[in-house]
Design brief:
Layout lengths: L1 H36 L6 E4 L4 E7 L4 E7 L2 E6 L3 E6 L19
Antiparallel strand pairs: 1-2, 1-5, 2-3, 3-4
Length: 105
């Protein structure tokens, strides 16, 4: 019984640290990894070098092409993206067809 009384405060402190510090940090890491996996064309991203650009296309699972300015595109590793600043709207299936002029009556 004496050993349990000595160890109880340490176990309580470890449990508090786990629930207050470690568990939220793990959730944040999972959310950041999911955001990187879901980067798609049109998203505005910030890189680890401080550059901000718009994703123009995904090259493969590890690389994306980012447009930094007019006619300036670079290929980046997904791991170099630190933040997704703005998500784009989902791409629509097909644009609306051109309307034919209405016949005059």
């Amino acid at each position: 019984m004496d050993q349990f009384q000595i160890m109880a405060p340490f176990l309580i402190i470890i449990a508090i640290v786990y629930f207050v510090v470690l568990r939220p940090q793990q959730r944040a890491q999972k959310a950041a990894a999911a955001a990187l996996r879901n980067v798609r064309r049109g998203d505005v991203v910030a890189t680890s070098g401080g550059l901000i650009g718009k994703v123009s296309r995904t090259v493969d699972d590890n690389e994306v092409e980012v447009e930094l300015g007019p006619n300036l595109r670079v290929r980046l590793l997904r791991s170099a993206i630190t933040e997704v600043r703005a998500k784009s709207e989902p791409v629509k299936d097909a644009p609306p067809s051109a309307k034919t002029p209405a016949a005059k009556s």
